[in-house]
Amino acid sequence: MPYSHHSHSGQFCGHATGTLEEMVQQAVSKGFHTFSLTEHIPRPVEDFYPEEELSHTEESLAKLFEDFTHEAVRLRDAYSSKIKIIVGFETEWIRPSTLVLIENLLAKYEFDFFMGSLHHVHTIPIDFDKASYERARAKAGGTDERLFEDYFDSQYEMLQALQPPVVGHFDLIRLLSDKPDAEFEGFKEVWVRIHRNLEYIKSYGGILELNSSALRKGLAQPYPCLTICQAFLHMGGRFTMSDDSHSIDQVGTNYGRLLDFIQKTGMEEVWYADRDAPRHTSRFAHAGFSSIIVEELAQLPFWAANS
């Protein structure tokens, strides 16, 4: 009975497949305890993803997100006897106006939590394809090191503005880099920024997600990498689990490898969103976070059933 705090469906995300209910049903069938629904926020037309450009307007994308919130709450209630559904969203952080978009969503809807993520640097997507990554790198100065510095500076701005309860794929920037498993080796100024961001997350009580999607995309380690996890652990930081699934076949994918990684880090507990736990902040009406000891997590029947 593990947990995931990050998912997308083809019903509400153009680069995913399947309906939101099919995603929930798959999580139930795999024996998940908690499964979070976190579609992307609507964006202005200049920040549409390529698959949205031919099929959406700003108004239709906003309506799609509204439909998502209603369907997510319906599913949370309909499946409450089988699984704990957490309703949230995943941020973008692209340009100054993004903050206004997020603040408006928080004022309009009632969410359990949200995932604070960064997918762009200099307004260019850095995880969509290699060509886009290279454009962002050129704009940053032409090297991975300079792009990494700009990524973590932009992430710091997002953290300060939003203080997200969960920080999504903290080091996503390494996915399409020249050496994605090098753990930022030799990049002194990058590490200064990483430690600054981690210290800030710890200061307001934020949680890092351990995101297994890096493994299905060919990386040797999940997000964040081992060195970052151990640095955050040394600060007393907290972690939660995510599969970042975009289709039913990705629900719980590589979770066995994720558990192995958790044990390798030396962390003693993992946290999960819990509507019955004390709230993280008054902005969120329902979800706090509870924890499970890693030794107990490893003994859950899920692992044998999904090996």
From TrEMBL:
<keyword id="KW-0028">Amino-acid biosynthesis</keyword>
<dbReference type="InterPro" id="IPR010140">
    <property type="entry name" value="Histidinol_P_phosphatase_HisJ"/>
</dbReference>
<feature type="domain" description="PHP">
    <location>
        <begin position="5"/>
        <end position="213"/>
    </location>
</feature>
<dbReference type="GO" id="GO:0005737">
    <property type="term" value="C:cytoplasm"/>
</dbReference>
<dbReference type="GO" id="GO:0004401">
    <property type="term" value="F:histidinol-phosphatase activity"/>
</dbReference>
<dbReference type="GO" id="GO:0000105">
    <property type="term" value="P:L-histidine biosynthetic process"/>
</dbReference>
<comment type="pathway">
    <text>Amino-acid biosynthesis; L-histidine biosynthesis; L-histidine from 5-phospho-alpha-D-ribose 1-diphosphate: step 8/9.</text>
</comment>
<keyword id="KW-0378">Hydrolase</keyword>
<dbReference type="InterPro" id="IPR004013">
    <property type="entry name" value="PHP_dom"/>
</dbReference>
<dbReference type="Pfam" id="PF02811">
    <property type="entry name" value="PHP"/>
</dbReference>
<protein>
    <recommendedName>
        <fullName>Histidinol-phosphatase</fullName>
        <ecNumber>3.1.3.15</ecNumber>
    </recommendedName>
</protein>
<keyword id="KW-0368">Histidine biosynthesis</keyword>
<dbReference type="InterPro" id="IPR016195">
    <property type="entry name" value="Pol/histidinol_Pase-like"/>
</dbReference>
<comment type="similarity">
    <text>Belongs to the PHP hydrolase family. HisK subfamily.</text>
</comment>
